[in-house]
Amino acid sequence: MxxxxxxLADARPTDVSLEARELSMGYAQSLIIDTLNLTIPSGQxxxxxxxxxxxxxxxxxxxxxxxKPSAGSVLLDGKAIGSLPSREVARRLALLPQxxxxxxxxxxxxxxxxxxxxxxSLLRQWSEEDQAIVDAALAAAxxxxxxxxxxxxxxxxxxxxxxxxxxxxxxTPLLLLDEPTSALDLxxxxxxxxxxxxxxxxxxxxxxxxxxxxxxxRYADHLIAMHQGRIVASGSPNDIVTPQLxxxxxxxxxxxxxxxxSGTPVIAGVSRL
Length: 273
Hints:
Blueprint: H1 6-10, E1 18-27, E2 30-39, E3 45-49, H2 56-63, E4 71-76, E5 79-80, H3 86-92, E6 93-96, H4 108-113, H5 128-140, H6 156-169, E7 174-178, H7 186-201, E8 205-209, H8 213-219, E9 222-227, E10 230-235, H9 237-240, H10 243-250, E11 252-258, E12 265-272
Parallel strand pairs: 3-8, 3-9, 6-7, 7-8
Antiparallel strand pairs: 1-2, 1-4, 4-5, 9-10, 11-12
Helix pairs in contact: 5-6
């Protein structure tokens, strides 16, 4: 995967703030998120971790305005996100959902062009700058040679990178990713995580749901550990990840090692209680 082009770096967004206040969400009669308070650190990569069913994806959907709270609020730059016009939200926040889908026949480059839609209007039509950003996003996601391929003809990992490229092309200051490496092999997982680090270095604030705790520790600046709809710990990986936290989250014993390259925690010697 190539490095982000200077063009994407030049489209450096301003700081953005995202927080949840007394947030509760659920489905039907089931409460998933319970009175949660959260402030996303600006200009950093935050990873939401925790066991299946703890509310990670529900929280991300609430932060992205896809799921309406039953109580509390989500604030984007200090304003209730539900009160903001959709186009304004789309210029500040891009979302890569876990189950993204597209119409049959849509090519990679056509999908990525949709990322520029929030920036179009009657007074601002497609420009050379838009095309240059699409080209840069294709290069960043290592998809230049696949630009004219229909999405349905590609592997799950290739499609995942195409969706990530569309989110990159949106050039928002805030990027929300729901398990961005779930369909990728190990090599492409590393490439996507390294791209995420480049995006943060270019000024973006990134929130991602991550299934693998060791990967979250290595690539995130800030962890948000969830259990049964509540945040049980938050902070830098080296500060909060302990065998006791792993046991509380996943119900297993483990040994913590230090990654020789990053110095971050690596989970090893896992066994049931």
